[in-house]
Automatic annotation (TrEMBL):
InterPro entries membership: Restrct_endonuc-II-like, tRNA_endonuc-like_dom_sf, UPF0102_YraN-like
A GO molecular-function annotation: nucleic acid binding
UniProt xrefs under Gene3D superfamilies: 3.40.1350.10
Taxonomic classification: Bacteria, Pseudomonadati, Pseudomonadota, Betaproteobacteria, Burkholderiales
Protein name per the record: UPF0102 protein E1742_16510
Length: 115
């Protein structure tokens, strides 16, 4: 199946986020985890902590930028996907949700954005 230009941009953003987080010492666990009702862009390990990373990109800061584009509905889907992913663990590890916001090519790492 061929990909759209939008999908290619999303892939490039995830690639940039993965490089950024890896340089900060995080380790990739899984990429593009999908389940019924949700998707997680990157799942990383930061020491003992499992980190669910949402990657958002915008060409400009108009309308609040990349981070502001994560709606309450999107947050619910992220939580659902994380809960589904965690079913594979007999004991739950410490977890957090991070965002990589890419605005006009500038990367910002927002840690522990949802509780």
């Amino acid at each position: 199946m061929s990909r759209t230009a939008q999908q290619d941009k999303g892939q490039q953003g995830e690639d940039a986020a993965l490089v950024h987080l890896t340089r900060q010492g995080l380790k990739l666990v899984e990429r593009n985890f999908r389940c019924a009702g949700g998707e997680l862009d990157l799942i990383m390990r930061d020491g003992d902590c499992l980190v669910f990373v949402e990657v958002r990109g915008r060409r400009s800061m108009r309308f609040g930028g990349a981070a502001a584009s994560i709606t309450p509905a999107k947050q619910r889907r992220l939580v659902h996907a994380a809960q589904t992913f965690l079913l594979r663990y007999p004991r739950l590890p410490p977890c957090r949700f991070d965002v990589i916001a890419i605005d006009a090519g500038s990367i910002e790492w927002l840690k522990n954005v949802m509780s």
